[in-house]
């Protein structure tokens, strides 16, 4: 295509013109001497600056072709939705009296956008595959931990005749481990139902304060082991139409996360209040723990998100909690919002659900 033409190109140019190809002929001085009907539309860019820049680049391409170069390059013009990418190709021709160049211009914006979209899809697929692998590795660890506790205590009880205090301690530890594994499996099942579009709520009138109180009882021992203080302020009359188990599930994840990411000796405050102005029951959970970086904050509701891998290994968990909490809150017609001042500045989670009519 870019080899120097030795024959009169007029017949070829006429055919290209009839085919709707955008081209122009430039002489050795860099002046345009003729062009096809499609040329004007191809060079009609959105701004005067872009049109001027395009003309200069086309003229330069023509002169380089006349000098013996093979020219085929791409130029980007504009930004956003109106951005365009032009492919400029030029070839020298030799009519009877002087050397000149024919320059073709093609709008390849859609092709460029399609390639960019394909690259983006490929990058997302690779990221999803890596997240899946990480999730499976974390899941196997999280499932093995309570099982190891249960098996360890059962083997200890079988190996000797324990006293009553040892039996009580073993039973309590096994019970906690079994409940932890049950919650983990429940999270996985709920996530699977959400993906399959099969999540169902067993609705009835729910006292949000009671659901939050039950969730606090479930995390209290973990809080005591970390010396994290739980401060509860539960108002009466916060009734919603919802699934009590799922609302407790939401509260458990919010409180569990707050305790998990709190430093030893920290504090977690939980408030359930009635917002008559908005017609909503609110759950506010605040901690003074590790906080959330500005980079991670927009992604906290994504599944399997729990910050950098070192933090995940340190605190454990599958990274499903906030994702499930948002899904369950929105299934109740509510909203959930997370705020943090940054790393080391704690986190606040605010849930609003419509009050029962």
Question: Overview of this structure, please?
Answer:
The longest helix is centred in the middle third of the chain and has 51 residues, at 109-159. Strand 4 (84-93) and strand 5 (100-107) form a beta hairpin. This protein starts with 9 loop residues before the first helix and ends with a strand. With 357 residues, it is of the alpha+beta class. The strands form three sheets. It has a five-stranded antiparallel beta sheet, sandwiched between helices. Strands 7-9-10-12-11 form a five-stranded mixed beta sheet, with helices on one face. The chain is 47% helix and 22% strand. It is built from nine helices and twelve strands. It has three domains: 10-107, PAS domain (Beta-Lactamase), CATH 3.30.450; 126-199, Signal transduction histidine kinase, dimerisation/phosphotransfer (DHp) domain (Helix Hairpins, Orthogonal Bundle), CATH 1.10.287; 202-357, Histidine kinase-like ATPase, C-terminal domain (Heat Shock Protein 90).
Key words describing this protein structure:
357 residues; alpha+beta; Beta-Lactamase; Helix Hairpins; Heat Shock Protein 90; 3 domains; five-stranded antiparallel beta sheet; five-stranded mixed beta sheet; 9 helices; elongated; disordered N terminus
């Amino acid at each position: 295509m870019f080899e120097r033409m030795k024959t009169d190109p007029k017949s070829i140019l006429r055919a290209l013109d009839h085919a709707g190809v955008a081209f122009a002929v430039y002489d050795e001085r860099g002046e345009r001497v003729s062009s096809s009907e499609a040329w004007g539309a191809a060079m009609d860019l959105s701004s005067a600056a872009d049109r001027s820049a395009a003309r200069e680049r086309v003229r330069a391409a023509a002169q380089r072709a006349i000098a013996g170069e093979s020219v085929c390059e791409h130029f980007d013009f504009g930004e956003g939705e109106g951005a365009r990418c032009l492919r400029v190709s030029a070839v020298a021709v030799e009519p009877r009296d002087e050397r000149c160049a024919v320059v073709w211009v093609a709008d390849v914006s859609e092709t460029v956008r399609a390639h960019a979209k394909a690259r983006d899809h490929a990058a997302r697929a690779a990221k999803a595959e890596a997240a899946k692998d990480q999730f499976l590795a974390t899941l196997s660890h999280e499932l093995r931990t309570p099982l190891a506790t249960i098996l360890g205590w059962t083997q200890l009880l079988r190996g000797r005749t324990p006293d009553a205090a040892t039996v009580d301690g073993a039973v309590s530890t096994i019970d906690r481990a079994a409940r932890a594994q049950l919650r983990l499996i429940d999270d996985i099942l709920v996530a699977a139902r959400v993906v399959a579009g099969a999540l169902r709520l067993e609705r009835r009138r729910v006292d949000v304060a009671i659901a939050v109180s039950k969730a606090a009882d479930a995390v209290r021992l973990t809080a005591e082991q970390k010396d994290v203080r739980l401060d509860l302020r539960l108002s009466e009359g916060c009734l919603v139409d919802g699934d009590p188990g799922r609302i407790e599930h939401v509260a458990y994840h919010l409180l569990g996360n707050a305790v998990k990411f709190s430093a030893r000796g920290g504090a977690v405050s939980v408030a359930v209040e009635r917002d008559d102005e908005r017609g909503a029951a609110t759950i506010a959970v605040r901690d003074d723990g590790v906080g959330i970086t500005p980079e991670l904050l927009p992604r906290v509701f994504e599944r399997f998100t729990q910050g950098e891998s070192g933090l995940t290994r340190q605190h454990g968990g599958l990274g499903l909690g906030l994702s499930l909490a948002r899904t369950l809150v929105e299934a109740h017609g509510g909203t959930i919002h997370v705020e943090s001042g940054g790393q080391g500045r704690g986190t606040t989670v605010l849930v609003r659900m419509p009050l029962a009519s």
